[in-house]
Amino acid sequence: MNLTGVVSVSGKPGLHKLVGQNKSGYILESLDEKKTKSIVNISTARLASLADITVYGDDEDLKLKDILAKMKAQGNVPEAKADAKDLRAFFYEVAPSHDEEKVYGSDIKKIVGWYHILKDLPLFNEEEPKAEEEAGEEKSAETKKEAPKAAKSPAKTAKPKNDKAASTKSAAVKKTGGSKTP
């Protein structure tokens, strides 16, 4: 599942896709049927990327994308407006090691609601671009290895430039010196 660019905005219902940024704020597109675009202020907006959200766990935090993947595998996900006890029982099935004291019923309702928004979108069935990131890391490692070689060659060309610059300065001094003397 590819949650890159999908954000939750505090004070705005639903989920949004981060389209871009301008000098006054973030440009967001809602993920509902209306596909409305809006701009939220950079200084006051609190955005949370779904790819970065974690849920409190007993031993360690649980990633939201892992919980959503388990919900997808489960198949029979209750509605967000279902009874709180039913939602809690369902959440124990998909995230058995979540911290019961720190994860509130409202959090579970929000996660289930997000699942129902995302399940019909094509990005929910897309693979995460890990292969591209790993390939990018390998390329950056290769360029780091080649970088010292590239740094040496400009140093060789820098010496003639410095000599040329020095000769230009001396020529400028000669011109000014020549015009001062009659």
TrEMBL record:
Residues 126-136 have a biased composition (Acidic residues). Residues 167-176 have a biased composition (Low complexity). This is Uncharacterized protein. Residues 137-149 have a biased composition (Basic and acidic residues). Gene3D superfamilies: 1.10.10.1650, 2.30.30.730. Residues 3-50 form the DUF5606 domain. It comes from the Bacteria. Residues 53-118 form the DUF6852 domain. It holds the Pfam family DUF6852. Residues 126-182 are annotated as: Disordered.
